[in-house]
Amino acid sequence: xxxxxxxxxxxxxxxxxxxxxxxxxxxxxxxxxxxxxxxxxxxxxxxxxxxxxxxxxxxxxxxxxxxxxxxxxxxxxxxxxxxxxxxxxxxxxxxxxxxxxxxxxxxxxxxxxxxxxxxxxxxxxxxxxxxxxxxxxxxxxxxxxxxxxxxxxxxxxxxxxxxxxxxxxxxxxxxxxxxxxxxxxxxxxxxxxxxxxxxxxxx
Length: 203
Fold this sequence. Notes:
This protein is α/β, with parallel strands linked by helices. Helices cover 26% and strands 26% of the residues. The protein contains 6 helices and 8 strands; from the N terminus they run αβαββββαβββααα.
């Protein structure tokens, strides 16, 4: 007898999304003072919490995924819209510089900005002598500016000029089922799978 109930994809589409977005993004540095100076005084992200990781969390049984070093610095910066950028300070010289294109690495960190914020950031970077690319068009209605933090982490500021002070992040990249299908079919995946992963997209 055929299954006439809703598909797993349809059921998933009817439920709430699994999160509210980014709580914090945790990166690494060898020099917390340098990193703090950059994000507070150049980028303009306020420092909101400065701590050292409690004893036993680095190499002891209480480690919950922290870098394996005891009592290292862990600072948090206000990225805007109730989200945080965080850094761990790794002991100097014990780790190599990361390649952002490594599998499992972080290619870049992008944050949403209004047109005024984008211009203010451009002026801050100019004043600090920090090189950047852009603003450049990356998608219809979406422009970005790229720069690196002092640790070599690539940062992106994304702006939707026509949206003014109310950017719509999801809307800036949202595709229809047909648009997504053009790419998904090139993966060689089954039709059933393509239908499942595009179930929530508009027609």
